[in-house]
């Protein structure tokens, strides 16, 4: 993988390439998004090198010794470089695999709009298929989408021939691994990529284990497709003690994700956030109740709303210390009536039912606070309901 990083970044920095493909994860930049982008860009580079014919190309060029510009495939972490440290599990895991911060491309490292407009460019979206407002300029360049969220056609801005793999599974890395398998067969290479890049195999497996909470039957986040892919990856890795190895991987990533003691409320609000319309939706690796007990928490929420031109905050919390717990709160300092309306909308949601049980918090009386009884419902299940609410407001 070191050669992939070195060659790709050198050619990108020096503008020494023919076609450019950006593989871009979603704006929350969680481990699923980051690994999906990194592994798929690495695979596309490997595939390109497998199918191109250097001899024919040189003969066609007529001069064997002339340097040839090649296509490059660049993974983009959809977060500013200064915010990378907030993604604690991503930082921990990448560094544990020898991936240096300097190996990575972040969204503010380049003017992405100028980059795609000034070169022969394609964009592959992974772990999302609805572009944030600031990224809508990418839509004409999108050629492929790989995502595990429920289909949302309300903001489908893409060309008719875009290739989409959208399937509701526990982890986008499941679909990335499946796509790599399928494309590898086309070049008669079967499992060659996974064997050539064992670190990619390991990262895909670890991320699926994290996203499915190690295939917890209580939470039911894993699908048969997730299980099949992990078994396939493990058939290549051959761990000695499969169950113990899975649990060790899961626990280490959970600990890294929860390592937020030194983050301020403002940083926690930026750690894993999505914006839907004017609704700001941060997801915490701690309970919302714990976040709201931190000094200055609501002031930080107000500042985040103002900075991002949002009117309502929908805070989502999760804790895995003693079994899974989830909670949520809504807050709107300037338009409290809107938070009340969205609260009622979420209470009455049926697809799925979120199982919201109201509770009054003494330290945050201006918030609508709930325990979430449907433990399987993550932010992915909230977003379609929020989309409908913002469309009908």
From TrEMBL:
Domain DHHA2, residue spans: 250-390
Any Pfam family the entry gives: DHHA2
InterPro entries, sorted: DDH_dom, DHH_sf, DHHA2, DHHA2_dom_sf
Gene Ontology MF terms: exopolyphosphatase activity; metal ion binding
Matches recorded under Gene3D superfamilies: DHHA2 domain, inorganic pyrophosphatase (n-terminal core)
Signal peptide feature range: none
Keyword presence, Hydrolase: yes
GO CC terms of this entry: cytoplasm
SUPFAM superfamilies per the UniProt record, alphabetical: DHH phosphoesterases (SSF64182)
Key words, A-Z: Hydrolase, Manganese, Metal-binding
Needed co-factor(s): Mn(2+)
Positions in coiled-coil regions: none
Domain of life, per lineage: Eukaryota
Similarity section: Belongs to the PPase class C family. Prune subfamily.
Protein name according to UniProt: DHHA2 domain-containing protein
Species, as recorded: Mythimna separata
Lineage: Eukaryota, Metazoa, Ecdysozoa, Arthropoda, Hexapoda
């Amino acid at each position: 993988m070191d050669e992939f990083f070195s060659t790709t970044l050198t050619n990108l920095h020096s503008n020494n390439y023919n076609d450019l493909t950006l593989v871009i994860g979603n704006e929350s930049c969680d481990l699923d998004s980051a690994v999906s982008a990194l592994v798929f860009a690495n695979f596309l580079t490997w595939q390109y090198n497998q199918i191109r014919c250097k001899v024919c190309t040189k003969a066609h060029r007529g001069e064997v010794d002339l340097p040839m510009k090649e296509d490059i495939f660049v993974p983009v972490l959809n977060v500013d470089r200064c915010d990378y440290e907030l993604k604690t599990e991503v930082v921990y895991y990448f560094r544990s695999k020898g991936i240096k911060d300097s190996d990575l491309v972040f969204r503010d490292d380049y003017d992405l709009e100028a980059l795609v407009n000034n070169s022969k460019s394609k964009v592959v979206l992974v772990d999302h298929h609805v572009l944030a407002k600031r990224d809508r300029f990418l839509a004409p360049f999108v050629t492929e989408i790989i995502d595990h969220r429920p289909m949302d056609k309300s903001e489908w801005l893409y060309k008719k021939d875009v290739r989409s793999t959208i399937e509701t599974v526990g982890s986008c890395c499941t679909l990335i691994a499946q796509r790599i398998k399928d494309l590898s067969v086309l070049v008669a290479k079967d499992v060659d990529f996974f064997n050539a890049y064992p670190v990619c195999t390991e990262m895909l497996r670890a991320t699926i284990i994290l996203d499915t909470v190690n295939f917890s039957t209580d939470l039911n986040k894993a699908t048969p497709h997730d299980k099949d892919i992990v078994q396939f990856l493990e058939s290549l890795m051959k761990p000695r003690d499969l169950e113990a190895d899975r649990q060790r991987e899961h626990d280490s990533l959970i600990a890294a994700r929860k390592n937020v003691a030194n983050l301020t409320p403002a940083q926690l609000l930026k750690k894993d956030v999505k914006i839907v319309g004017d609704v700001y939706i941060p997801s915490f690796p701690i309970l919302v109740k714990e976040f709201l007990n931190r000094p200055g928490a609501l002031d930080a929420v107000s500042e985040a709303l103002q900075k991002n031109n949002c009117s309502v905050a929908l805070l989502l919390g999760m804790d895995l210390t003693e079994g899974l717990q989830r909670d949520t709160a809504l807050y709107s300092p300037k338009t409290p009536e809107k938070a009340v309306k969205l609260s009622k909308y979420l209470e009455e949601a049926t697809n799925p039912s979120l199982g919201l049980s109201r509770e009054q918090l003494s330290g945050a009386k201006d918030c609508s606070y709930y325990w979430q009884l449907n433990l399987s419902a993550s932010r992915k299940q909230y977003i379609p309901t929020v989309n409908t609410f913002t469309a009908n407001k």
